[in-house]
Amino acid sequence: MAKGTKEYTVPALEKSIQILNSLANEELSIGDLHSRLNLPKTTTFVILNTLEQFDIICKTPSGKYRLAHGVLRWGNSYLNSMDMVQIARPHLERLVHETPYTSHLAVLINNKPIYCDKVEGNGFVRFATSIGQSQPLFQSSVGKALVSDMSNEEIKMILPEDRSQLSDKNERSLDKFLEDVEFVREYGFSIEDEEFEEGVRCIGAPIRNFTGKVIASMSITALSKDLPAVKFMKIGEQVKATALLISQDLGYIFN
Fold it and tell me: Is domain 9-78 given the CATH code 1.10.287.180 in the classification?
């Protein structure tokens, strides 16, 4: 709950919000609301009647109440007003604060990860990445995170068929890529260990919207010396936690 000054609250509105929050979880009768929220039955009836008139709630055939289509106006308005880059940036800045890491935000466009934001760390090295730049799907931590909710069959369909131009060191089989994606599904973050560029490592994580769908991913990029393998799990958990905070700000409810 957001912080506020108690003396300025409106009692009737506060009770209405309590009722709506309860109905967001399940259908309830007047008696249920009266006992659970410790509200007078007359007050509960008046509030329910008012909310029903505005299609915020409706009565079921069983005599209980549930949320109605009127709440969609608020939900859709909120979702349409959200700017993912604006929401994600403070989280990315906090993640890289006082580190040599650089953070990126990416979305999948035409089956390619595209950077849509970048936050530099405090290291001396500046990575030659830019907003609008694409990354190889199968050689990037953001790419692995972006496809982590897809089935293996869907992934096979969107992977590029010709990877012959890659060096022997960077050549990755489909099976190995699917193993990397399975790691994301199990641990919640992805690792790119000098696959795209020698001496550079990345750790990414998926970002979800209010439906739970992966709609973006974020990552940190670092020189290998600044991100040794022994730190993969620790930093991975931090990246995953940051991605979850962004997801929650986008409406995702984590169970």
Answer: no
Find the length of the chain.
255
| Residues 70, 183: Cα–Cα separation, whole Å | 41
pLDDT digits (tens, 9 = 90+) for 181-192: 999 999 999 999
Nearest Cα neighbor of 167 from 140, 143, 198 is: 198
pLDDT at 71 (0 to 100): 83
Cα distance between residue 102 and residue 118, in whole Å: 7
67 by Cβ neighbours in 10 Å (0-12 / 13-18 / 19+) ranks as middle
Q: Which position has the higher pLDDT, 208 or 70?
A: 208
The CATH 1.10.10.10 portion of the chain extends over 9-78
Write down the residue that tokens 């309590």 correspond to.
18
Pick the CATH number of 82-249 from 3.30.450.40, 3.40.50.720, 3.40.50.300, 1.10.8.1310: 3.30.450.40
